[in-house]
Amino acid sequence: MLQTTFLDYTYENPLMNASGVHCMTVEELTALENSAAGAFITKSATLAPREGNPEPRYADVPLGSINSMGLPNNGVDYYLDYALKYQMNHEAPLFFSVAGTSVDENIALLQKIQDSDFQGITELNLSCPNVPGKPQVAYDFPLTEKILTEVFQFFTKPLGVKLPPYFDMAHFDQMAEILNKFPLTYVNSINSIGNGLYIDPESDQVVIRPKEGFGGIGGEYVKPTALANVRAFATRLKPEIKIIGTGGILTGQDAYEHLLCGAIMLQIGTQLQKEGPAIFERIAQELEAIMKKKGYQSIADFRGKVKTIN
């Protein structure tokens, strides 16, 4: 009932982790392998291992989370080694995330993947909002176009991009116009909403250390923004570019709404952090129950068919 075909492979369901959550180590990735998730993605890799920002850099808050992680990861070779071993024993393509701290590093990371035997799907994170001193690439539209132009001169494997949230209709139009020029496999919307601030009411203190408490907001807070971005790109991008919906998925209803707006796969971040990999089975069951209640046999029956008011 929840089977989802993405590229040439049919996954048991559309559920995935969001890169950054429960995917730092081989042990965490193996837990995702053994969960009810339909697919999963590695931690965003940089060329060299990174410790990331000083702690505390993540906090659960009542309606979600705030974080300023700073790309902690074990380096691209660590995840590539895992990915190559994984694909020897599994038919399902693995998703592999990369996030350079510079344009040159992004190019070098993708060149490394291009030259490797990796046969899965690569996600280029253009929306990391918490590397000190660097703006998000995807808020610089000419730079985004420049990077993608350079990438597709050599990169021939399936590639998606992870985007930050946009808040203006003109920005949806402008970014979609750029993305439609390239043979992208998918767009992942959204990353966390950048530069929120959360204050502990007892101590009057911010709850994370980096950037004097400023961080990316995730969870229930961001669902309306995430749905808007999914819908905006689903209606603007050429059909070959699929949408992965991320942001505010806590329940089967949330998952259903992302699919209704046009997403094909769904990534879960904050709630996975709070609940652990058992969340995938729960959300799959809740989504299936909603579909049965509404009389749908498959996700294709309702995907992208959100109704508007005439």
Structural topology:
Elements: E1 4-6, E2 9-11, E3 15-17, H1 26-33, E4 58-61, E5 64-67, H2 76-89, E6 95-98, H3 103-115, E7 121-125, H4 141-151, E8 159-163, H5 169-179, E9 186-189, E10 193-197, E11 199-200, E12 205-206, E13 214-219, H6 223-234, E14 242-246, H7 252-260, E15 265-268, H8 270-275, H9 279-294
Parallel strand pairs: 3-15, 6-7, 7-8, 8-9, 9-14, 14-15
Antiparallel strand pairs: 1-2, 4-5, 5-13, 10-13, 11-12
How would you briefly describe this protein structure?
The chain has 310 residues and is α/β, with parallel strands linked by helices. Helix content is 32%, strand content 19%. Helix 4 (141-151) runs parallel beside helix 5 and helix 7 (252-260) packs across helix 9 (279-294).
Write up what this structure looks like:
This protein has helices at 26-33, 76-89, 103-115, 141-151, 169-179, 223-234, 252-260, 270-275, 279-294; strands at 4-6, 9-11, 15-17, 58-61, 64-67, 95-98, 121-125, 159-163, 186-189, 193-197, 199-200, 205-206, 214-219, 242-246, 265-268. It has 310 residues and is an alpha/beta fold. A hairpin with a 2-residue loop joins strand 1 and strand 2. Helix 7 (252-260) crosses helix 9 (279-294). It is globular and about 50 Å long.
